[in-house]
Amino acid sequence: MDNSTFQAYEDEIQALEEEIRLLTEKYEDLQQESTFFSDEEILESIKALQRETQGETKGHESPSDLKAQLERLETDLSFLTAFTGFHFTSHSKKTLEKTRDGTVQKHRLSGKCHSLSFQLEFQLLEMQNNEKVSAVVSDLSIIMESREDSNVSKFVSSIEECGDLLTFFRSISTYAEWYEHRRHTFLHFK
Questions:
Q1: An example of a Gene Ontology BP annotation on this entry (predicted)?
Q2: Are residues 91 and 168 in the same domain?
Q3: Does pLDDT of 33 surpass 70?
Q4: Are residues 103 and 177 in the same domain?
Q5: Of 4, 41, 130, 190, whose CB neighbour count within 10 A is largest?
Q6: Number of domains the chain contains
Q7: Which percentage of the chain shows pLDDT scores above 90?
Q8: Containing domain of residue 130, as a range?
Q9: Is residue 69 part of a domain?
Q10: How far is Cα 34 from Cα 156, in angstroms, rounded to an integer?
Q11: Mind listing the pLDDT tens digit for each residue in 66-85?
Q12: How far apart are CA 104 and CA 94, in angstroms?
């Protein structure tokens, strides 16, 4: 290998390292921005949006108003998909048992986080005590396309055991984002 070819590879490696550094800084900035809002603030915003949406639909039932509302909802959905990286392709829910104290439902959910596909199947027990509603996830089964990585396989197994969906979604979001970065980086070397 001559020096010019070697230098070209060195230059490409340095450019990739700089790109990785910039992407890491950008990612850390986005993480800091997203932590500025507490869970209570997010829930209050969602409730306010729901009240606003319900108020709009009660008095305006014309087709043009419904079409405009549908377009707004599609815009909101595309924003949330771009913001979180999650794109859900299917969801099914089946009520297995309904009692006075609670409801057991079986959920099947599939989608993608960035380019990483996943499927979830779980049972959700919802119980209402006084004015509080609590939910318990059981029989969680996760199928992912990237299970050949032993660390991901161990992570998925531990999530399935404890039934912690929130941790799964938070972790898979970060993992899938960096999975994409790695995939793009390795494409430069092919």
A1: CENP-A containing chromatin assembly
A2: yes
A3: no
A4: yes
A5: 41
A6: 2
A7: 4
A8: 85-189
A9: no
A10: 25
A11: 888 888 888 888 888 888 88
A12: 9
Asked whether residue 25 falls in the same domain as residue 109, the answer is no
Would you say residue 168 lies in a domain?
A: yes
Query: Measured between alpha carbons, how far is 132 from 14 in angstroms, rounded to an integer?
Result: 56
- The mean per-residue pLDDT over the stretch 126-132 comes to 81
Return the structure tokens found at 113. Answer: 């986080």
Residue 92 domain-assigned (yes or no): yes
pLDDT of residue 34: 55
- The rounded distance, in Å, linking the Cα atoms of 24 and 16 is 12
Tokens of 63: 């087709």
Report the C-alpha gap between 92 and 166 in whole angstroms.
19
Q: Are residues 106 and 20 in the same domain?
A: no
Q: What count of other Cβ atoms lies within 10 Å of the Cβ of residue 54?
A: 9
Q: Are 93 and 106 within 8 A, CB to CB?
A: yes
Q: Is residue 95 part of a domain?
A: yes
Task: Assess whether pLDDT exceeds 60 at residue 62.
Answer: yes
Burial of 159 (0-12, 13-18, 19+ CB in 10 A): buried
